[in-house]
Amino acid sequence: MKRVVLLSVVALGALLASSCVKHPTEPKEPPPKSDSCCNGTLLIVPYDSVSGEIISGASVRLQKQNGDYSRTIPSDSTGALFTRLCPGTYAIRIATESPHKPCAVREMTITMGCNETKTLRVPIRCERESNCCHGVLIVFAMDSLRMSPPSASGIVRLWRGNAIIQQAELRQGQAAFDGLCPGEYTVEIRAEGYQLKEIPVRLECNEQKLLRLLLSPMPKECCEGKIKVVVRDSVRATALSGVRIRLWKGGAIIAERATDSEGRAMFDQLCKGVYGVSIYAEGYVPKEFVIELGCNQEIERLALLSPREGQCCHGALAILVRDSETGKPVDEAIVGLWAGGTLLRTKETDDDGQVYFGQLCNRRYAISVHHEDYYPFEQSLTLECNEQARLTIALRPR
What we know:
Elements: H1 2-20, E1 40-48, E2 59-64, E3 70-74, E4 80-85, E5 88-95, E6 106-112, E7 117-124, E8 135-143, E9 154-160, E10 163-170, E11 174-180, E12 183-191, E13 197-203, E14 208-215, E15 225-233, E16 244-249, E17 252-258, E18 264-270, E19 273-280, E20 287-293, E21 298-305, E22 315-323, E23 334-339, E24 342-348, E25 354-360, E26 364-371, E27 374-382, E28 388-395
Parallel strand pairs: 1-7, 8-14, 15-21, 22-28
Antiparallel strand pairs: 1-4, 2-3, 2-5, 5-6, 8-11, 9-10, 9-12, 12-13, 15-18, 16-17, 16-19, 19-20, 22-25, 23-24, 23-26, 26-27
Protein backbone atom coordinates (compact mmCIF):
# COMPACT_ATOMS: atom_id res chain seq x y z
CA MET A 1 0.00 0.00 0.00
CA LYS A 2 2.85 2.39 0.92
CA ARG A 3 4.58 1.58 -2.40
CA VAL A 4 1.46 2.51 -4.42
CA VAL A 5 1.14 5.85 -2.61
CA LEU A 6 4.84 6.60 -3.15
CA LEU A 7 4.59 5.96 -6.91
CA SER A 8 1.52 8.19 -7.12
CA VAL A 9 3.34 11.06 -5.41
CA VAL A 10 6.37 10.72 -7.74
CA ALA A 11 4.15 10.72 -10.84
CA LEU A 12 2.24 13.79 -9.62
CA GLY A 13 5.51 15.64 -8.95
CA ALA A 14 6.82 14.89 -12.44
CA LEU A 15 3.56 16.12 -13.96
CA LEU A 16 3.74 19.40 -12.02
CA ALA A 17 7.40 19.91 -12.95
CA SER A 18 6.73 19.42 -16.66
CA SER A 19 3.93 21.97 -16.58
CA CYS A 20 6.30 24.58 -15.14
CA VAL A 21 9.04 24.09 -17.76
CA LYS A 22 8.90 26.56 -20.65
CA HIS A 23 9.62 24.61 -23.86
CA PRO A 24 11.60 26.45 -26.61
CA THR A 25 9.55 27.74 -29.56
CA GLU A 26 10.52 28.63 -33.11
CA PRO A 27 11.59 32.28 -33.46
CA LYS A 28 9.00 34.47 -35.17
CA GLU A 29 9.65 37.27 -37.67
CA PRO A 30 8.70 40.67 -36.29
CA PRO A 31 5.46 41.94 -37.82
CA PRO A 32 5.94 44.48 -40.60
CA LYS A 33 5.53 48.09 -39.63
CA SER A 34 2.05 49.19 -40.45
CA ASP A 35 3.14 52.74 -41.23
CA SER A 36 5.57 51.76 -44.06
CA CYS A 37 4.30 52.17 -47.63
CA CYS A 38 7.59 51.45 -49.39
CA ASN A 39 7.42 47.68 -49.76
CA GLY A 40 5.88 47.61 -53.22
CA THR A 41 7.00 45.05 -55.82
CA LEU A 42 6.90 45.32 -59.63
CA LEU A 43 7.82 42.52 -62.04
CA ILE A 44 8.34 43.75 -65.61
CA VAL A 45 8.25 41.00 -68.25
CA PRO A 46 9.37 42.07 -71.75
CA TYR A 47 8.45 39.55 -74.46
CA ASP A 48 8.69 39.22 -78.24
CA SER A 49 5.35 40.37 -79.66
CA VAL A 50 5.58 37.77 -82.47
CA SER A 51 6.93 34.63 -80.78
CA GLY A 52 5.74 35.39 -77.26
CA GLU A 53 9.16 34.46 -75.82
CA ILE A 54 10.46 36.39 -72.83
CA ILE A 55 13.40 38.62 -73.82
CA SER A 56 16.45 38.07 -71.61
CA GLY A 57 19.23 40.63 -71.35
CA ALA A 58 17.03 43.65 -72.04
CA SER A 59 17.98 46.84 -70.17
CA VAL A 60 14.98 47.72 -67.99
CA ARG A 61 15.04 51.12 -66.26
CA LEU A 62 12.55 52.19 -63.58
CA GLN A 63 12.66 55.84 -62.53
CA LYS A 64 10.28 57.61 -60.17
CA GLN A 65 8.92 60.80 -61.65
CA ASN A 66 9.83 63.77 -59.48
CA GLY A 67 11.55 61.39 -57.04
CA ASP A 68 14.95 60.00 -56.16
CA TYR A 69 14.42 56.34 -57.17
CA SER A 70 16.23 55.28 -60.34
CA ARG A 71 17.43 51.75 -61.11
CA THR A 72 18.39 49.81 -64.25
CA ILE A 73 18.65 46.01 -64.26
CA PRO A 74 18.84 43.40 -67.06
CA SER A 75 15.90 41.09 -67.59
CA ASP A 76 16.34 37.33 -67.13
CA SER A 77 14.13 34.35 -68.03
CA THR A 78 11.43 35.61 -65.63
CA GLY A 79 11.70 39.35 -66.34
CA ALA A 80 13.07 42.20 -64.21
CA LEU A 81 12.03 42.46 -60.54
CA PHE A 82 11.98 45.79 -58.66
CA THR A 83 11.34 45.83 -54.90
CA ARG A 84 10.97 48.33 -52.04
CA LEU A 85 8.86 50.69 -54.15
CA CYS A 86 7.06 53.64 -52.57
CA PRO A 87 3.71 54.95 -53.86
CA GLY A 88 3.93 57.17 -56.93
CA THR A 89 4.24 57.24 -60.70
CA TYR A 90 7.28 55.61 -62.32
CA ALA A 91 8.71 55.91 -65.84
CA ILE A 92 9.72 52.65 -67.53
CA ARG A 93 12.23 52.30 -70.39
CA ILE A 94 13.06 48.95 -72.03
CA ALA A 95 15.86 48.63 -74.60
CA THR A 96 17.70 45.69 -76.18
CA GLU A 97 21.10 45.58 -77.87
CA SER A 98 21.10 42.40 -80.00
CA PRO A 99 22.52 43.23 -83.48
CA HIS A 100 20.88 40.13 -85.00
CA LYS A 101 17.44 40.88 -83.63
CA PRO A 102 16.92 44.64 -83.20
CA CYS A 103 13.94 45.48 -81.04
CA ALA A 104 11.92 48.61 -80.41
CA VAL A 105 12.58 50.81 -77.40
CA ARG A 106 9.49 50.92 -75.18
CA GLU A 107 8.71 53.78 -72.80
CA MET A 108 5.68 54.00 -70.54
CA THR A 109 4.56 54.92 -67.02
CA ILE A 110 2.94 52.99 -64.19
CA THR A 111 1.45 54.11 -60.87
CA MET A 112 2.12 52.12 -57.70
CA GLY A 113 0.00 52.23 -54.53
CA CYS A 114 0.94 51.53 -50.91
CA ASN A 115 2.83 48.18 -50.75
CA GLU A 116 1.23 47.16 -54.04
CA THR A 117 2.43 44.12 -56.00
CA LYS A 118 2.11 44.24 -59.78
CA THR A 119 3.22 42.26 -62.82
CA LEU A 120 3.50 44.14 -66.13
CA ARG A 121 3.89 42.20 -69.38
CA VAL A 122 5.28 44.41 -72.16
CA PRO A 123 5.19 43.30 -75.82
CA ILE A 124 8.32 44.30 -77.76
CA ARG A 125 8.37 44.41 -81.54
CA CYS A 126 11.59 42.78 -82.80
CA GLU A 127 12.80 42.61 -86.39
CA ARG A 128 14.61 39.60 -87.79
CA GLU A 129 17.99 40.29 -89.43
CA SER A 130 17.42 41.51 -92.96
CA ASN A 131 19.38 43.03 -95.84
CA CYS A 132 16.56 45.54 -96.20
CA CYS A 133 16.94 47.12 -92.75
CA HIS A 134 19.38 49.91 -93.60
CA GLY A 135 16.84 52.64 -94.32
CA VAL A 136 17.38 56.25 -93.19
CA LEU A 137 14.77 58.86 -92.29
CA ILE A 138 15.73 62.52 -91.76
CA VAL A 139 13.06 64.78 -90.25
CA PHE A 140 13.26 68.52 -90.97
CA ALA A 141 10.70 70.67 -89.11
CA MET A 142 9.96 74.38 -89.54
CA ASP A 143 7.85 76.97 -87.74
CA SER A 144 4.74 77.41 -89.88
CA LEU A 145 4.65 81.19 -89.28
CA ARG A 146 8.32 82.16 -89.53
CA MET A 147 9.28 79.40 -92.01
CA SER A 148 12.47 78.74 -90.08
CA PRO A 149 13.54 76.01 -87.62
CA PRO A 150 11.52 76.10 -84.37
CA SER A 151 13.05 78.25 -81.63
CA ALA A 152 12.67 75.44 -79.07
CA SER A 153 14.11 71.94 -79.31
CA GLY A 154 11.87 68.93 -78.89
CA ILE A 155 11.59 65.17 -78.97
CA VAL A 156 10.90 63.15 -82.14
CA ARG A 157 9.55 59.63 -81.75
CA LEU A 158 9.33 57.06 -84.51
CA TRP A 159 6.44 54.60 -84.05
CA ARG A 160 5.72 51.34 -85.84
CA GLY A 161 2.32 50.04 -84.85
CA ASN A 162 1.99 50.54 -81.10
CA ALA A 163 5.74 50.44 -80.40
CA ILE A 164 8.33 53.22 -80.27
CA ILE A 165 11.13 52.12 -82.61
CA GLN A 166 13.51 55.03 -81.99
CA GLN A 167 13.59 58.40 -80.27
CA ALA A 168 15.80 61.41 -81.05
CA GLU A 169 16.18 65.03 -80.02
CA LEU A 170 15.01 67.71 -82.44
CA ARG A 171 18.01 70.07 -82.77
CA GLN A 172 17.83 73.10 -85.05
CA GLY A 173 14.73 71.55 -86.57
CA GLN A 174 16.41 68.26 -87.50
CA ALA A 175 16.42 64.65 -86.29
CA ALA A 176 17.68 61.48 -87.99
CA PHE A 177 16.88 57.76 -87.73
CA ASP A 178 18.77 54.88 -89.35
CA GLY A 179 18.73 51.09 -89.44
CA LEU A 180 15.07 51.11 -90.56
CA CYS A 181 13.30 48.19 -92.21
CA PRO A 182 10.62 48.56 -94.92
CA GLY A 183 7.13 49.36 -93.71
CA GLU A 184 4.70 51.92 -92.34
CA TYR A 185 5.86 54.32 -89.60
CA THR A 186 4.45 57.29 -87.71
CA VAL A 187 6.57 60.33 -86.85
CA GLU A 188 5.58 62.16 -83.66
CA ILE A 189 7.06 65.56 -82.73
CA ARG A 190 6.67 67.18 -79.31
CA ALA A 191 8.20 70.65 -78.94
CA GLU A 192 7.43 73.14 -76.19
CA GLY A 193 5.36 76.01 -77.55
CA TYR A 194 4.09 74.00 -80.54
CA GLN A 195 1.11 71.77 -81.18
CA LEU A 196 1.70 68.01 -81.25
CA LYS A 197 2.50 66.82 -84.77
CA GLU A 198 1.96 63.27 -86.08
CA ILE A 199 2.44 62.17 -89.68
CA PRO A 200 2.59 58.70 -91.32
CA VAL A 201 5.48 57.75 -93.58
CA ARG A 202 6.35 54.64 -95.56
CA LEU A 203 9.86 53.36 -96.26
CA GLU A 204 10.91 50.92 -98.96
CA CYS A 205 13.94 48.59 -98.84
CA ASN A 206 16.99 50.60 -97.70
CA GLU A 207 15.29 53.84 -98.74
CA GLN A 208 16.77 57.17 -97.61
CA LYS A 209 14.00 59.72 -97.16
CA LEU A 210 13.88 63.39 -96.14
CA LEU A 211 10.62 64.35 -94.44
CA ARG A 212 9.79 68.07 -94.30
CA LEU A 213 6.92 69.27 -92.12
CA LEU A 214 5.54 72.40 -90.46
CA LEU A 215 4.90 72.92 -86.74
CA SER A 216 2.04 75.16 -85.63
CA PRO A 217 2.85 77.44 -82.64
CA MET A 218 0.63 77.31 -79.57
CA PRO A 219 -1.25 80.44 -78.47
CA LYS A 220 1.24 82.81 -76.78
CA GLU A 221 -0.85 83.69 -73.72
CA CYS A 222 1.20 82.78 -70.61
CA CYS A 223 3.66 80.74 -72.73
CA GLU A 224 6.76 82.95 -72.61
CA GLY A 225 8.24 81.46 -69.42
CA LYS A 226 11.90 80.42 -69.04
CA ILE A 227 13.74 77.90 -66.88
CA LYS A 228 17.52 78.29 -66.57
CA VAL A 229 19.57 75.49 -65.02
CA VAL A 230 23.19 75.87 -63.93
CA VAL A 231 25.04 72.59 -63.24
CA ARG A 232 28.22 72.43 -61.13
CA ASP A 233 30.39 69.82 -59.44
CA SER A 234 29.40 69.75 -55.75
CA VAL A 235 33.00 69.18 -54.62
CA ARG A 236 35.05 71.45 -56.87
CA ALA A 237 32.24 73.95 -57.70
CA THR A 238 33.34 73.84 -61.36
CA ALA A 239 30.86 74.15 -64.23
CA LEU A 240 29.89 70.89 -65.96
CA SER A 241 29.48 71.10 -69.74
CA GLY A 242 27.66 68.61 -71.95
CA VAL A 243 25.35 67.52 -69.13
CA ARG A 244 22.06 66.05 -70.34
CA ILE A 245 18.98 67.82 -68.91
CA ARG A 246 15.42 66.72 -69.59
CA LEU A 247 12.28 68.77 -69.01
CA TRP A 248 9.13 66.84 -68.09
CA LYS A 249 5.47 67.86 -68.02
CA GLY A 250 2.51 65.59 -67.41
CA GLY A 251 4.75 62.51 -67.29
CA ALA A 252 6.25 63.11 -70.76
CA ILE A 253 9.59 64.53 -71.91
CA ILE A 254 8.88 67.81 -73.72
CA ALA A 255 12.41 69.11 -74.26
CA GLU A 256 16.05 68.18 -73.78
CA ARG A 257 19.18 70.31 -73.54
CA ALA A 258 22.93 69.93 -72.98
CA THR A 259 24.78 72.44 -70.81
CA ASP A 260 27.28 74.82 -72.45
CA SER A 261 30.87 75.51 -71.40
CA GLU A 262 29.58 77.49 -68.39
CA GLY A 263 27.34 74.65 -67.25
CA ARG A 264 24.17 76.50 -68.31
CA ALA A 265 21.08 75.31 -70.16
CA MET A 266 17.87 77.21 -70.84
CA PHE A 267 14.34 76.16 -71.72
CA ASP A 268 12.17 78.96 -73.14
CA GLN A 269 8.66 79.51 -74.49
CA LEU A 270 7.26 77.60 -71.52
CA CYS A 271 3.61 77.80 -70.57
CA LYS A 272 2.37 78.21 -67.01
CA GLY A 273 2.44 74.93 -65.06
CA VAL A 274 4.46 72.41 -63.06
CA TYR A 275 7.62 70.98 -64.65
CA GLY A 276 10.00 68.22 -63.66
CA VAL A 277 13.73 68.50 -64.33
CA SER A 278 16.02 65.46 -64.52
CA ILE A 279 19.80 65.80 -64.85
CA TYR A 280 22.20 63.05 -65.93
CA ALA A 281 25.99 63.34 -66.25
CA GLU A 282 28.43 60.50 -66.70
CA GLY A 283 30.33 59.96 -63.45
CA TYR A 284 27.79 61.78 -61.26
CA VAL A 285 24.71 60.86 -59.23
CA PRO A 286 21.52 61.80 -61.18
CA LYS A 287 19.45 64.67 -59.81
CA GLU A 288 15.74 65.55 -60.10
CA PHE A 289 13.58 68.42 -58.90
CA VAL A 290 10.24 70.12 -59.59
CA ILE A 291 9.63 73.73 -60.65
CA GLU A 292 6.26 75.48 -60.64
CA LEU A 293 6.29 78.19 -63.30
CA GLY A 294 3.94 81.14 -63.20
CA CYS A 295 2.63 83.13 -66.17
CA ASN A 296 5.65 84.20 -68.29
CA GLN A 297 7.89 83.74 -65.24
CA GLU A 298 11.68 83.26 -65.44
CA ILE A 299 13.32 80.91 -62.91
CA GLU A 300 17.00 80.02 -62.51
CA ARG A 301 18.02 76.95 -60.48
CA LEU A 302 21.53 75.86 -59.40
CA ALA A 303 22.06 72.08 -59.45
CA LEU A 304 25.07 70.62 -57.62
CA LEU A 305 25.92 67.09 -58.78
CA SER A 306 27.78 64.70 -56.47
CA PRO A 307 30.53 62.58 -58.08
CA ARG A 308 29.95 58.84 -58.02
CA GLU A 309 32.19 56.71 -55.86
CA GLY A 310 35.36 55.61 -57.61
CA GLN A 311 38.20 57.36 -59.41
CA CYS A 312 37.64 56.11 -62.97
CA CYS A 313 35.09 58.63 -64.26
CA HIS A 314 37.39 61.42 -65.44
CA GLY A 315 38.02 60.13 -68.95
CA ALA A 316 37.48 62.21 -72.10
CA LEU A 317 36.85 61.67 -75.80
CA ALA A 318 37.68 64.23 -78.50
CA ILE A 319 36.15 63.52 -81.93
CA LEU A 320 37.13 65.08 -85.27
CA VAL A 321 34.67 64.61 -88.17
CA ARG A 322 36.01 65.00 -91.73
CA ASP A 323 34.82 64.56 -95.31
CA SER A 324 36.21 61.22 -96.57
CA GLU A 325 36.92 62.66 -100.04
CA THR A 326 38.21 66.18 -99.40
CA GLY A 327 39.50 65.71 -95.85
CA LYS A 328 37.85 68.99 -94.80
CA PRO A 329 36.15 69.30 -91.38
CA VAL A 330 32.40 68.71 -91.32
CA ASP A 331 30.50 71.21 -89.18
CA GLU A 332 26.93 70.91 -87.85
CA ALA A 333 27.14 67.12 -87.69
CA ILE A 334 25.13 65.57 -84.85
CA VAL A 335 27.33 63.28 -82.72
CA GLY A 336 25.65 60.94 -80.22
CA LEU A 337 27.38 59.20 -77.30
CA TRP A 338 25.73 55.89 -76.32
CA ALA A 339 26.28 53.33 -73.56
CA GLY A 340 24.27 50.18 -72.92
CA GLY A 341 21.73 51.10 -75.60
CA THR A 342 21.02 54.48 -73.95
CA LEU A 343 21.78 57.84 -75.55
CA LEU A 344 23.85 59.73 -72.96
CA ARG A 345 24.59 63.00 -74.77
CA THR A 346 24.41 64.66 -78.18
CA LYS A 347 26.64 67.43 -79.47
CA GLU A 348 27.06 69.31 -82.73
CA THR A 349 30.46 69.66 -84.38
CA ASP A 350 31.91 73.19 -84.49
CA ASP A 351 33.48 74.96 -87.49
CA ASP A 352 36.56 72.77 -87.08
CA GLY A 353 34.48 69.57 -87.15
CA GLN A 354 35.18 68.79 -83.49
CA VAL A 355 33.20 67.76 -80.40
CA TYR A 356 34.39 66.92 -76.89
CA PHE A 357 32.87 64.64 -74.24
CA GLY A 358 34.28 64.80 -70.70
CA GLN A 359 33.74 63.10 -67.32
CA LEU A 360 33.53 59.62 -68.90
CA CYS A 361 33.79 56.41 -66.87
CA ASN A 362 35.74 53.32 -67.94
CA ARG A 363 33.29 51.32 -70.06
CA ARG A 364 32.32 50.55 -73.65
CA TYR A 365 30.69 53.36 -75.67
CA ALA A 366 29.11 53.70 -79.10
CA ILE A 367 29.40 56.78 -81.33
CA SER A 368 26.77 57.78 -83.93
CA VAL A 369 27.19 60.62 -86.43
CA HIS A 370 24.45 62.11 -88.62
CA HIS A 371 24.51 64.84 -91.24
CA GLU A 372 21.99 65.42 -94.01
CA ASP A 373 24.78 65.57 -96.67
CA TYR A 374 26.54 62.37 -95.55
CA TYR A 375 25.78 58.71 -94.88
CA PRO A 376 25.27 57.88 -91.16
CA PHE A 377 28.26 56.51 -89.27
CA GLU A 378 28.54 54.33 -86.15
CA GLN A 379 31.54 53.05 -84.21
CA SER A 380 32.20 51.43 -80.81
CA LEU A 381 35.17 51.88 -78.52
CA THR A 382 36.23 51.09 -74.96
CA LEU A 383 37.69 53.70 -72.62
CA GLU A 384 40.09 52.62 -69.90
CA CYS A 385 40.30 54.26 -66.47
CA ASN A 386 40.54 58.07 -66.97
CA GLU A 387 41.73 57.61 -70.56
CA GLN A 388 41.98 60.74 -72.75
CA ALA A 389 41.11 59.43 -76.23
CA ARG A 390 40.97 61.04 -79.69
CA LEU A 391 38.95 59.72 -82.61
CA THR A 392 38.85 60.83 -86.26
CA ILE A 393 35.76 59.92 -88.28
CA ALA A 394 35.52 60.19 -92.07
CA LEU A 395 31.98 60.63 -93.42
CA ARG A 396 31.11 59.47 -96.93
CA PRO A 397 29.12 62.06 -98.98
CA ARG A 398 25.70 61.02 -100.25
